[in-house]
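Exercise 7b. Backbone tokens:
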């Protein structure tokens, strides 16, 4: 069957791009933050969704272009 196209592309990109010094520390920090923020609490998930919707509304309303930044 082989690899999915998305997995093949991911592997090719990762194998051909070098990482800058310090990337590992940054990636570890981002992974730690992601782990800290992980939840399956429905109330927290709904709160986050509402915050995201409010952020999008504010960003779309507060710029000078006629285009929608966050659909």
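Sequence design result:
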């Amino acid at each position: 069957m082989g690899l999915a196209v998305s997995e093949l592309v991911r592997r090719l990109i990762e194998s051909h791009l070098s990482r800058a010094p310090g990337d590992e520390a940054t990636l570890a920090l981002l992974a730690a933050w992601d782990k800290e923020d992980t939840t399956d609490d429905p109330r927290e998930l709904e709160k986050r969704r509402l915050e995201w919707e409010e952020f999008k509304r504010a960003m779309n309303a507060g710029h000078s272009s006629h285009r929608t930044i966050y659909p």
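Instructor comment: Residues 5-61 form one domain. The radius of gyration is 18 Å.
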